[in-house]
């Protein structure tokens, strides 16, 4: 099947599929004699897996390493693959904490708008009207 159909089935944009192939995140796709990519069901499964991992927050570089290890098929790399995933879990936890902090901050600003935001807005508006003398 062609790249358009592969994108439709996997939920990944065609440009991203090309990029993933170029950087080695997914294996090289076989091509027809005229050079058109010819995706197999196995390629679609790989694309779906990559999409799930990206949706889970796994970054491209570690995922590329992870996929390379998987494609090697060496059971001795199991611990390295697990370590990659653990590192990604920690990174995601950190990002969640940062996002929660930003959410709490904005929620506080909204809940206390008159006392917190309004005075600052007035100051911002006045300072933007002042001319700077050099």
Automatic annotation (TrEMBL):
Residues 75-102 form a coiled coil. Residues 1-69 form the HTH merR-type domain. SMART domains: HTH_MERR (SM00422). The keyword Glycoprotein does not apply. GO terms for molecular function: DNA binding; DNA-binding transcription factor activity. SUPFAM superfamilies: Putative DNA-binding domain (SSF46955). It comes from the Bacteria. Keywords: Coiled coil, DNA-binding. PANTHER family: HTH-TYPE TRANSCRIPTIONAL REGULATOR ADHR, REDOX-CYCLING DRUG-SENSING TRANSCRIPTIONAL ACTIVATOR SOXR. This is Transcriptional regulator. It comes from Lactococcus lactis subsp. lactis A12. The gene is rmeA.
